[in-house]
Amino acid sequence: MKQLTIGIDIGGTNTVIGVVDADGNILVKGGIDTPSHGDINRYVKDMSEAIRDLIKSVTMVNPEVEILGIGIGAPNGNYYSGTIEYAPNLSFKGVVHLVDLLKAQFPEYQHIALTNDANAAALGEMIYGGAKDMKDFVMYTLGTGVGSGLVVNGDLVYGHDGFAGECGHTTLIPDGRVCGCGGLGHLEAYCSAPGMKRTAFELMVKYNATDSLLAGKSFIDMESKDIYDAAVKGDKLALEVFEITGKYLGQGLADTVHHLSPEAIFLFGGPTAAGDYIFKPAKESMETHLLPIFKNKVKILPSQLKTGDAPIVGASALVWKEKR
Amino acid sequence: MKQLTIGIDIGGTNTVIGVVDADGNILVKGGIDTPSHGDINRYVKDMSEAIRDLIKSVTMVNPEVEILGIGIGAPNGNYYSGTIEYAPNLSFKGVVHLVDLLKAQFPEYQHIALTNDANAAALGEMIYGGAKDMKDFVMYTLGTGVGSGLVVNGDLVYGHDGFAGECGHTTLIPDGRVCGCGGLGHLEAYCSAPGMKRTAFELMVKYNATDSLLAGKSFIDMESKDIYDAAVKGDKLALEVFEITGKYLGQGLADTVHHLSPEAIFLFGGPTAAGDYIFKPAKESMETHLLPIFKNKVKILPSQLKTGDAPIVGASALVWKEKR
C-alpha cells in the first residue's frame, strides 16, 4: 500500500492542489481559482471535488494507495484552530473554519491540518529537504513578502495563538521604510523582492545613476530578476543592491539567532536564486552582528525545496508531521 | 517526606546557595566567594561542603526531608553539556564541566543541571511564579545586562547549542551605542541599568540640562535608582529617560513577539521596580510595532519572583522541571 498525502496551497489568485508521496514528489496537480469563491461553502465544495478528481486520477493508475490526509498552507492560517483569520489578500473575509469544513467533506481522513505558508515551507524542509536531521532550524521565505517558520526541538513554533514566526515584521531600521503591513522599518520592506527594488531606486537616487542597466525600468516594472540580470552583467548599482539587501538580511538573521540559536537558517524564494550575491553579504553581516558565543556556528543554507512545488509539498508535510 | 531542592547562583563575586521548597521558599541560604577560586577543583570542593552544611542545618530541624537535586544558574551556562563556557566575568576560564564535577561529589542525586541566569529566572517564573499556567512566555531580565529566557510549548528554548535566548543582543539601532559585548546598537546598551544612565546623560547633553536633579551625579556614580528617585520628584529629564527606555524596550519586545507570539512577557530586575514609568511606554511602543494580528494580545507583566531570591529560586526550578 503506497501512502500519499494531499497538499494544498491557497493563494490570493489560485488554490493549487497536489497529491504528494513520502519523498515529496508531486504525482498529480490541479487547482481552482480562489477569488471567484467569495462564498466559502462553494469554495470548499469545489475544492473537495478537485481533490476527489485528483485522487481518482491516481488510483486509476495504482489502486493500491492510501491517502493519509490533507495539509493546507494559507496566509494567516492558524494551526491550532484550523482557521484562516482576516487574510488581507483572500476573498473570503473574517475567520474561516476551513479545517472543520473539509473534515465534514472528508470524514475518512484522520489528519486534516492547516498552517501559514512559511510554516508549511519549514515543515517541507524538515520532512523532505535539507533539515531532515535537524531539531532546531529556521526558514525564511523571501518573495513579495518575507515569511518565516521556526522549528525548536523538532516542532514548529506556533506560539500561544498559532501565529508565531512573523520575522519579516521585526524592525530593522527604526522609523524606516513603510512596510506592507503599515509598520515602519520592517525586514520585509528591505529584504523582499519589492524591498530590493526599493533599494535599487534608492541607490539610483543617491548616485543619479543614469548609467545603470536598471535606469530604464519604471518603478512598477522592475523585478528582482532584473536586478539579478544586471548584477550578472557587472552593473555596479545592481551589485550594491545585493550587498545592501544581504547586509539588512544578516542583521535580521542575527536577531533570530539571538532568540533561538538554530543549527541553520534556510532561505527560500525568488531573491535567493541569486546565490552568493545574497548569501555572502547576508552571512558576513550576520556574523558581524552575532555575540562571540554564536559566531561561525550557524549555517545559512539555500532551501532544497523546488521553487514552484514548495508550497504544495510543504503543506503536505503537515500530514506526515502529524502522523509521526 | 518533604521534598527540597538546592538552588545555586554563580556570580562573578559570590556564589550563593539555597535550600528551596516546592513553593519557592528559601529555607536556608549560604555561599562562598567565586573569584578566589581560580582552581575549579577547589571551588567545587568548597561549594560541595557548603551544600552539605546547608542540608545538615535543614535536616537538624526536620529529619524527614528528601533532597531531589541541584540546579545552577551561571553566566554562559550550557544546559546540554552542563558546562560554563568562556564566561567573561568568572575567574575560571575556558570550558568548565561543572555538572560532571558536582555529580562526582553527589552521586546520590539524579537531577543536577545548569543553565544561564535568565533561563533559570524563566523556569522560576514557570514553577513558582506568574507563568504557572502558561505554555508560551518570555522572561526579560533587566540589570547590569539584559538577559532573556524563552519558553515554547512548556519547555525552555535552548537552541542547537544550549545558548538560545540572548535577546539583549538583538540590534535595536543599526550602528548605535557600543554594547558590553562589543556589538553596536544592541538592546542591552539601551534597556539595561547602565543603558538608562547613558540615556540620561544623552538627554543632559541634548538639553544642556543643568537644572535636572541628575545633573550633579558623575557618570560613574549615577544608578538607575537615582533616575527613578528623580522621576518620582517630577524631574522632566528623568521622566523622559523612562519614556525613551520603554520605547526602546517595546521595540525589542515586539521583535520577540514576531518570533514567538508568547502569551506574556515578564520583566524582571532593578529598572522594573519603576513600575508604570517603564511598563507603560514599553507596552505602548510594543503595540505600535506589532502586526495587527498580535495587537492587544500579549501581556507585559512584572515578574512575581522576589528580586534578591530569584537567581537561587530560579536555579532550583531546574530540578523541579527535570523531575516533572
What are the defining features of this structure?
five-stranded mixed β-sheet; homodimer; Nucleotidyltransferase, domain 5; alpha/beta
Quick recap:
2 copies of one chain form a homodimer. Chain A is α/β, with parallel strands linked by helices and about 325 residues long.
Task: Describe the overall structure.
2 copies of one chain form a homodimer. With 324 residues, the first copy, chain A, is of the alpha/beta class. Chain A has 2 domains: 144 residues, Nucleotidyltransferase, domain 5 (2-Layer Sandwich), CATH 3.30.420; 166 residues, ATPase, nucleotide binding domain (Nucleotidyltransferase, domain 5, 2-Layer Sandwich), CATH 3.30.420. Chain A contains 9 helices and 13 strands. In chain A, the strands form 3 sheets. A 5-stranded mixed sheet of chain A has the order 3-2-1-4-8, with helices on both faces. A 5-stranded mixed sheet of chain A has the order 11-10-9-12-13, sandwiched between helices. In chain A, α8 links the parallel β12 and β13. In chain A, α6 packs across α7. The longest helix of chain A has 25 residues. Chain A is globular, with a radius of gyration of 20 Å. Chain A starts with a strand and ends with a helix.
Total helical elements of chain A = 9
Largest interface: which pair?
A-B, 48 and 48 residues
Estimate percent helicity of chain A. 25-40%
The average pLDDT value of chain A, as a whole number, equals 94
Write the layout of secondary structure elements.
2 copies of one chain form a homodimer.
Chain A: E1 2-10, E2 14-20, E3 26-33, H1 40-61, E4 65-73, E5 77-78, E6 83-85, E7 95-96, H2 98-105, E8 111-115, H3 117-127, E9 137-142, E10 146-152, E11 155-156, H4 188-191, H5 193-207, H6 224-232, H7 236-260, E12 264-268, H8 276-289, E13 299-302, H9 310-323
Parallel strand pairs in A: 1-4, 4-8, 9-12, 12-13
Antiparallel strand pairs in A: 1-2, 2-3, 5-6, 6-7, 9-10, 10-11
Helix pairs in contact in A: 1-2, 3-9, 5-7, 6-7, 7-8
